[in-house]
Design goal:
The structure is a single chain. The chain has 712 residues and is α/β, with parallel strands linked by helices. The protein has three domains: 4-277, 2-enoyl-CoA Hydratase, Chain A, domain 1 (Alpha-Beta Complex), CATH 3.90.226; 312-490, Rossmann fold (3-Layer(aba) Sandwich); 497-700, Orthogonal Bundle (N-(1-d-carboxylethyl)-l-norvaline Dehydrogenase, domain 2). The chain is built from 28 helices and 20 strands. The chain has an eight-stranded mixed beta sheet with strand order 13-12-11-14-15-16-17-18, with helices on both faces. Strands 1-2-3-5-7-10 form a six-stranded mixed beta sheet, with helices on both faces. Helix 17 (430-434) links the parallel strand 15 and strand 16 (443-448). The structure holds coenzyme A.
């Protein structure tokens, strides 16, 4: 069955792309053959003056190349050949007898956008679903069907680099402004307008080649050289050289300016091939599959009851976390009853909600009316009025078991039967909170990360008592808030904080030994983390870290004993950023400066510093985390290795190009990892004892993920 169907409209061929049996349109070898057949047909049929490409799917125009196909490449040369095939196809689209109009409704990504760029005219439907992007770099690749050549010619060099180097989505209106689209219309008249334009193009009323946008800098070689130099410097600074596709994309774009048109395309094909075979791309493609598979995971193994609809929630505690949760819920049209004990606290919380929502208004992501509507969904209270019809309550009160028990009991007295009590605790085991409940099956953990509106992860924590419908509803609600949701079993630290603990502790132990703060942070930035561990301590707050460290040490013993430095620095009254005093200096406004050298005086090593190599720091910190992640699989905290990797990347910022801590196990190999951990354990007895599962894997020669085909 062909993916393309053709219908004639008075000299205009409307070609509808609707890949049978698939939720999205994507390019595969078979689809390319379908396009070739249609091109042949239209070339022959001289009654056709123009053609329209439109999607038969409701939400996507074209989602790009079939990523499954990337897994089948056998060599870089193979991938380069595939790219060259794509070039041929696009060339026919651009230069064939018949002019094409792309009628874009929904996601127009990667090869989808490249196809549109080869069309003579692009119309976007004015709908929030219409997004255009070249997301290849997010997969460790570069555009391979002419994107690095046609996009700069269409929107100018700077705008093109901005899209190609970030992979970011461009909405319909912005596409029109930048020249990426020629016209924007209401979705209802997309098809008719496209047919009209195709006819105008075919009859010469509308010129097939029109002047393109270019900025002053683009227009001359010197200006372009400046743009390339700046882009390269910025890319290297941001990526620390870990993402080769970024530099490859720059090289491909530059080739299109420096040599002939053919040189540009040839460079793109060659580099696409090379990038398809980088370990970085393998890991990023894994993350794509892992997040996609999580979108469908109900959180319940086996048959899951349907999730309940949640249109109103209660939030207890109007602090920073509570306000974040209330704000992201309101953004999704969910009504929020927002409660604290004092009017002043409620007012402060509502102001914080307003600030979060206002950020989106300022960025023009919502209209004034939408902003007002969202804000009006959140109502404050100091009692439990308005809670009797709330199916889900999220508590974000003070981290103290007695306080949690008190609010749980109060809430249960007013909530409707069957309501879910979700706790946003980050440290207290859920079963301990549930112990005070009259129905522990309705209690679940919802561990949001701070700031809630920015952090993509939600960790849902279930106890053996939590009912399957509670899990399914909580997971579905988290996803509705736009979060990537992992479900983990209940234990101290859950998953994310548990693997963070030995990592942070190890940074502290290095400080105990006399290592320099900036050397530790820089080493881990170079490893690929977004912030260094000592900076992270300052950000989280030393009091919070100290409390959580004590809980982890009590639960897991010496292995997770916090450093002496943490205790001493905290005892000296340094709380980190919030107290404007920590390991780093902060000015009046809270802006971070350099290392606060006076902090060394309160550390066990005093004023004497030692030199530790970056490699040693990276080995100690990263393997402490990796080993703990393996223990979380071993202890059944994780339902799948996939969740461990997604949790680390999305919750902590574990370097995406490494795939996650469990992917690191597969990359290094269990046997080699055991050796390296044993070597560390000999130096630091007890801290690096390899996880039992790791030894088993080493003995059996197994991996967490399949070594061939789809990783998840
Ligand atoms: N190649 C292969 N499969 C793809 C795909 C692609 N380019 N784009 C989407 N899919 C698949 C997903 O894997 C998923 O498959 P499944 O149902 O077997 O799990 C299905 O299409 C639906 O995708 P999903 O992400 O669940 O739907 P969504 O509506 O939330 O998002 C997209 C749709 C297109 C926005 C999103 O899938 C996406 O961003 N895709 C990747 C686009 C991309 O990177 N293209 C460039 C390739 S070089």
């Amino acid at each position: 069955m062909s993916a393309l169907s053709v219908s004639m409209h008075d000299g205009v061929a409307v070609v509808t792309f609707d890949l049978p049996g698939e939720p999205v349109n994507k390019f595969s070898k078979a689809v390319i053959a379908d396009f070739v057949a249609v091109f042949d047909q239209l070339e022959r049929d001289t009654s056709v003056v123009g053609a329209v490409l439109i999607s038969g799917k409701p939400d996507t125009f074209i989602a790009g190349a079939d990523i499954d196909g990337f897994l089948e490449f056998t060599s870089a040369a193979d991938a380069t050949r595939e790219s060259a095939e794509g070039h041929k196809l696009m060339d026919r689209l651009e230069h064939g007898r018949v002019p094409w109009v792309a009628a874009i409704n929904g996601a127009c990504l990667g090869g989808g956008l490249e196809t549109s760029l080869a069309c003579a005219y692009r119309i976007v439907a004015d709908s929030p679903r219409t997004v255009l992007a070249l997301p290849e770099v997010q997969l460790g690749l570069i555009p391979g069907a002419g994107g690095t050549q046609r996009l700069p010619r269409t929107v100018g060099l700077q705008a093109a680099l901005d899209m190609i180097l970030t992979g970011k989505n461009v909405r319909a209106k912005k596409a029109l402004q930048s020249g990426l689209a020629d016209e924007m219309v209401h979705p209802n008249i997309l098809r008719e307008t496209a047919i009209r334009r195709a006819r105008e193009l075919g009859t010469g009323k509308l010129p097939r080649v029109r002047p393109r946008k270019s900025s002053l800098l683009d227009g001359n070689p010197l200006g372009r050289a400046v743009v390339f130099r700046q882009a390269r410097a910025m890319t290297l600074k941001k990526s620390r050289g870990h993402y080769p596709a970024l530099l490859a994309a720059l090289e491909a774009v530059a080739a299109g300016y420096h040599g002939s048109v053919a040189d540009g395309f040839a460079t793109e094909a060659r580099l696409f091939g090379e990038m398809a075979f980088t370990p970085v791309s393998r890991q990023l493609v894994f993350l794509f599959y892992a997040t996609t598979s999580l979108k469908k995971d109900t959180g319940v193994s086996g048959d899951a009851p349907p999730p309940k609809k949640v249109e109103k929630i209660g939030v207890l505690g109007t602090g920073f976390m509570g306000a974040g949760i209330a704000a992201v819920s309101a953004m999704q049209g969910v009504a929020v009853r927002f409660k604290d004990t004092q009017h002043a606290a409620v007012a402060k919380g509502l102001a914080a909600v307003r600030d979060v929502l206002n950020e989106r208004l300022k960025k023009k992501q919502v209209t004034r009316q939408q902003f007002a509507d969202q804000l009006s969904l959140v109502s404050g209270t100091v009692d439990y009025t308005g809670f009797s019809n709330v199916p889900l309550l999220i508590e974000a009160v003070f981290e103290d078991l007695a306080v949690k028990h008190a609010v749980l009991k109060e809430a249960e007295a007013v909530l409707p039967p069957g309501a879910i009590f979700a706790t946003n605790t980050s440290t207290i085991p859920i079963h301990k909170i549930a112990a005070a409940s009259r129905d522990a099956s309705r209690v679940v953990g919802m561990h949001f990360f701070s700031p809630v509106h920015k952090m993509p992860l939600l960790e849902v924590i279930v106890t053996p008592q939590t009912a399957p419908d509670v899990v399914a509803t909580t997971v579905a609600f988290g996803r509705k808030l736009g979060k990537t949701v992992i479900v983990v079993n209940d234990a101290p630290g859950f998953y994310v904080n548990r693997i963070l603990a030995p990592y942070i502790n190890e940074a502290g132990k290095l400080l105990d030994e006399g290592a320099r703060i900036e050397v530790i942070d820089t080493a881990m930035l170079d490893y690929g983390f977004p912030v260094g561990p000592v900076t992270l301590l300052d950000e989280v707050g030393l009091d919070v870290a100290g409390k959580s460290g004590a809980i982890m040490a009590a639960a897991f013993g010496g292995r997770l004993q916090p450093s002496a430095t943490l205790g001493k620095v905290l005892a000296a009254g340094r709380l980190g950023r919030k107290g404007k005093k920590g390991f780093y200096l902060y000015d009046e406004t809270g802006k971070k400066g350099g290392v606060d050298a006076s902090v060394y005086d309160v550390t066990p090593a005093g004023s004497s510093r030692i030199d530790v190599s970056a490699a040693d720091i990276q080995e100690r910190l990263s393997l402490a985390m990796v080993n703990e992640a393996v223990r979380c699989v071993e202890d059944g905290i994780l339902r799948a290795p996939r969740d461990g990797d997604i949790g680390a990347v999305f919750g902590i910022g574990f370097p995406p190009f490494r795939g996650g801590p469990l992917r690191v196990v597969d990359t290094i190999g269990a046997a080699e990892l055991v050796k390296r951990l044993e070597a560390l354990n000999a130096r630091f007895p007890g801290r690096f004892e390899p996880a039992r599962l790791l030894r088993d894997m080493a003995a059996r020669g197994t991996t967490f993920y399949p070594t061939k085909g789809k990783p998840v």
